[in-house]
């Protein structure tokens, strides 16, 4: 692998080996990287410009690299149970509700560039309706949102001026990569069992505690807006349909 890193860095005109290492660390910490996010953009382009290297790197540890050019994200999906994070019951239910809401937005043609915008109040109403369970308290809900924001599944907007407890959430297209099973069936099963030990079959990587991106050196050229809109790769990686317990 060190030899592959040296070769990849040598071919890269504006990058060194340390940049590749930092990009891999960021993928492991965040699971998904987006071109639209300023802090992640240089690493997104680095990974997508060297797909073969990063694909081989993560395949060596049993993970799958996922790249969707049209939705401008790249990420990793765990392939082993010990490398996934076991979700709590309320986290599992919330994740399944997000998937259901995303599908509804798709059916109604209300998705923009793969992203679904929805108010938190609507999410909570749907949670109550589908699960018939009491909502998590405000502190717990913040923790749940923070968890899925760290993994790039949702993006939190600013609180509404007239209703500070409400905000706009962005459900990212990776929700379909993370929850790939019969999500409605899982939702029914979790509601029926009502056991804290049960969790959704989701491909969420284990938390590492590090998620902040260090800026790349000045020598890395910033992509122009026109360049960002160009599809860099035609190749897309098919996701695994293998059951994984989160």
From TrEMBL:
Name of this chain's protein: DUF4194 domain-containing protein
A Pfam family per the record: DUF4194
Region (Disordered), start-end ranges: 201-246
Ranges annotated as biased composition (Acidic residues): 237-246
Organism: Proteobacteria bacterium 228
